[in-house]
Amino acid sequence: MGSARKSPLAAAVLLGVLMWPALGTGCPDDADSDLCDATTTDPDEELPTSGASRSAPLVLSLALALSGHKHQSAAALGWLAALGSVPMALGADGPAGYTCGAVKDMYKDAGCCGQPDATFDVANYQIIPAPDTSVITTANPCEGTKPTASGFDNFPCADAIVGAVEQAGANVTEGYMGGMAVDATPWNLTYLEGGLCPVNVHWHYGAEHLSVGQFDEDGTGRNFSEEDDGGEDLTRRLAVARLGFQCHHFDEADPKFTTEYEWAYCVGMHVGETYEVHWPHSAAGACGTPFQYQTPFYDGVFCRGATYLAGELQHKVGVQAQVFVIVNDEDYFYPDLMRGMIMDPLGAQGFGADIAYYTGSTTGTSRDNEMCSAYSPITWQVDRKCHLISASSFDKMCADMLQQKDDMSDDLHAHGARELVSDELAADNLQRL
After folding, report:
1. 174-225 confidence digits (pLDDT tens)
2. What are the distances in angstroms from CA 273 to CA 31, 247, 365?
3. SS3 13
4. What are phi and psi for residue 28, nearest 5 degrees?
5. Is-contact 333 58, C-beta < 8 A?
6. Strand, coil or helix: what is 45?
7. Which residues form the signal peptide (predicted)?
């Protein structure tokens, strides 16, 4: 159930069946005889009568994306227009894609051997077109809108204390209160109700926030060394990502925490590790347009200009944060992680049942308790509980990110975690509603 081979993104089967003959790569005319070890089926083996999978109860989502793949024939281009392209490996710093062997395994596991004309069960498989072309020809209006004035540069935290410029990530444990007296009050309704939309998704290696008993210094994991960009320049991977706080779920005796997943779209990720996901929101985002999601996220936050951010900034810009341990178990699959924090407060895991609200700043390892962020105050809405999520949920999110009009490939890996802000830099307005 939790094996990598049966991940929801490993269903690139129909493309193998349809495209390989068209590519003229020497495969037999009968694609089925190439995808299966034998052209006949076991007479005692039950065949799916309607093409449905016998052994794939998962919700399988295929994101057939990555631009730049060179196709070898006009016939292949015809299939591309209808079905998309098989993702190809981009090297160590890019999405790995799927091997032909994984495609073959999925085809066989779905019960297609011996009946290549059968159809995949639409309730369990999704084939998503992803040609290199698009009807959207407008230039990205958000590109380069991140402020470049010196007033937005990091600055000494001693000045932040004097000027009451609150920082994040903070301690969000119930009952905690920061030591910085501020006038700002966090936005305590949903961001949607405030006219904000998500403009990016990214995540950090370990939790930047502290929630005692959930993600803290006593948490454990597999503790891989991850590479990070080392700061604001998202084109570089120079330093080892700083590991933040970890959750308490990890169990080295349980294979769902230790069986690695074959990542196709996310980069440098690992089962058994803790990650804090951030969804920046803005009233100045290109909400409801093909340019809503941006990397870097600052381009999304400032896309439509400062006039949309007038007034109390913390009511115009905010971040959702939720902490997960990744497991190799499809019982923990969620199909739409890109769109925002999971909200299921009455469910078994209590997603979003206990949210801390406070004002702070942007985070990341270019800031600490010596150098602070000038992007403040903004509202933070942080789920205080750590949750389990399947690796396939993250990989599906990365596939969705690659479908966006803006290039989000610099956010497919985990960023380093800022050290916990000191009490004197944390706002005194933490609340739970």
Report:
1. 999 999 999 999 999 999 999 999 999 999 999 999 999 999 999 999 988 6
2. 40, 8, 19
3. helix
4. -60, 160
5. yes
6. coil
7. 1-24
